[in-house]
Amino acid sequence: MTKWSRALSAVPLLATAGLAAWDMTQKKHALLRNFPVIGHGRYLLEKIGPELRQYIITSNDAERPFSRDQRSWIYASSKGENNYFGFGTDDDMEDNVGYPVIKHRTFTATPPPSGSHTADDVVLPGAKVLGGPRGRRKAFRPGSVVNVSAMSFGSLSGPAVEAINQGVRLAGALHNTGEGGLSRHHRQGGDLVLQIGTGYFGCRDERGRFDLGLLKEVVASAPVRAIEVKLSQGAKPGLGGVLPAAKLTSEIAQIRGVPLGHDVVSPSRHAEFTDIDSMLDWIERIADETGLPVGIKSAVGDLGFWDDLVEQMARGDRGVDFVTVDGGEGGTGAAPLVFSDAVALPYFVAFTRVYGRFARAGLTDEVTFIGSGKLGLPKAATMAFALGADLVNVAREAMLSIGCIQSQKCHTDTCPTGVATQNPWLVRGLDPALKSVRLATYLRTLRRDLLKVSEAVGVLHPGLIDPDDIELLEGTRHGVPLREVYGYEPGWGRLGDAVAQEISALMTGTAPVGGSAAPSATAD
């Protein structure tokens, strides 16, 4: 052995000895002081524990917020691959309480076709005209029942936003900007819903006050189809948003109108209104000035707000064009644990309580209801439509389709796939041209499956599925229709006759219909 090779072989020993000496003399970590060197193994396992559980230890259905089966379905769907599952379900139907079962019909005029990719190209528009009931000048029928929920540039990287906007353009869907303003990354040709949050980013003056003139300029500069006023979100209901200074670039600061070097904190409440009365005045002013449909997004807690809103809308002179109900399950926004876990009602409880108030007042056909909260899978989305949602928004599912691996590092600026970070090295790994196609394919696949399920139930559109078409099981002992579970009265969850006839007419001749072989000579 040469002198150099002996010296090199001693390097690991010297490094280990140096590490041991540092461990034994430091006082910050008792574990390392008592177990030098090997104590680092514990911290390593803690650091990579989520990855070990995700890929090695947990079962297909155990992981949260999205199980391995759910992620696999989204990944396969976004790539246009086989997203079927074999050998029967591995869901625990025998003991699961609240397991949904969709009740198909044996004889229908609209049996679904059997091909795995049949209906990929079918347009599945919203059943209601957004802004139509209130006569907005730029009212429109959404081209897709599945759209992308609010995620700001800043929380997401520029390439991720570009991929989403290009993807919704390919799929004919809508892209909600999130409260962070409208950036160049949003201007890839996809139609937009401009969200206004409590910070009024992108439409605020130098003192942070809302600027209606600036809002009109932003709306005129891009294909903005509607405006959503964010009151709260499921990830952190009752709190304002926070963009850490580490993720604040000069581009983001310019778009939002904020200084560099500081956390960007959205207030928890709006400054432009303080109650339902002043909120409706403000919304009507924005709708009049822009001509656009204007709605609200909110998580659901105290129901007094909704009682007051319905009471004032029942007068007919003012109102919101759409209501986005966000589930308290938590979403793309990072939040204190107690808020993610325990503040605001989960989606299905939240939505049904809000919808019931509008239904009791006879206002459900006057408002477009949008559901948001882990609804980007066919089973959950079908339940949402059955309970009265007209559109569903997807956020985390959209992130998964463009490369997210559920590492849950959204708030650290270290997202390994470049989706939720501003780190240039990590961002470079995300190709918008490729990922946009995957998002579009995922959206089309979800719409296709929703259409097939609708036809299995015997209708031409998911908006025509009603609460009696789905039951929630109590293991293998008992099943209860959604109508009874959520206390829906007769007619609730269904579209009005005129709206139902209109969407049925639109879908007739568009949706492919399956069926059987040609009848024999002796068939009845």
TrEMBL record:
Domain Glutamate synthase: residue ranges: 145-458
Record's keyword terms, sorted: Signal
Organism of derivation: Luteipulveratus flavus
Signal peptide segment: 1-20
Protein's name according to its UniProt entry: FMN-binding glutamate synthase family protein
InterPro entries, sorted: Aldolase_TIM (IPR013785), GltB (IPR024188), Glu_synthdom (IPR002932)
Family: Belongs to the glutamate synthase family.
